[in-house]
Amino acid sequence: MNISGNPALVLNADFRPLSYYPLSLCSWQNAIKAVFLERVSVIENYDFEVKSPSRTFQLPSVIALKDFITPQRKPAFTRFNVFLRDNFTCQYCHQMFSANELTFDHLVPKCLNGKTTWNNVVSACTVCNLKKGRRLLKYSGMKLNKEPARPTSIQLQNNGKNFPPNYLHKSWRDYLYWDAELQN
Q: pLDDT of 7-29, one tens digit each?
């Protein structure tokens, strides 16, 4: 039996995921260690057990931290967070792309002393990035989907809910979408 693909969903002490995208997961080994060190409470389990010479543990599928971690107010400026802020959408042609198909575009190009900041960088597909080139937006004949701005952590979390991960264990669903409207 291969249990390596059974990570645990990590919830904050308020039972919300620490992050939605990328989803807050930890390996089953780290989950067992955290349980043993009494840092987390087990909320749900897989149907698997692991054994040590002296104990048997049910494999946790959902764990909650015992101490609340305050989310960062100002998210880090990273390529991934820019793509997440822009909903993985090219800000020029308005099409969605995967993260590896998107690039940064500087509204004021670096060659014109443009800075790499939240307010000067947008997500762009390769075609649109090449089309705009090293010109100011007003000389490119292109229009922005929306003006770039520094997002809040809450905005990034909300955007992340729109992009569920490829793997969702059935025991996670109640904890990932608990603030979503229920359907009949």
A: 999 999 999 888 877 778 999 99
User: What average pLDDT does the segment 51-76 reach?
Assistant: 90
The answer to whether the CB of 65 falls within 8 A of the CB of 10 is: yes
> Domains plus CATH for the chain?
8-72+156-176 (no CATH), 79-151 (1.10.30.50)
CA angle, residues 9, 12, 33, in degrees to nearest 5:
60
Mean residue pLDDT of the chain comes to 89
CA distance linking residue 12 with residue 67, whole number of Å: 8
DSSP per residue, 2-49:
--TT-PEEEE-TTSSBS-BTTB-EE-HHHHHHHHHTTSEEEEEEEEEE
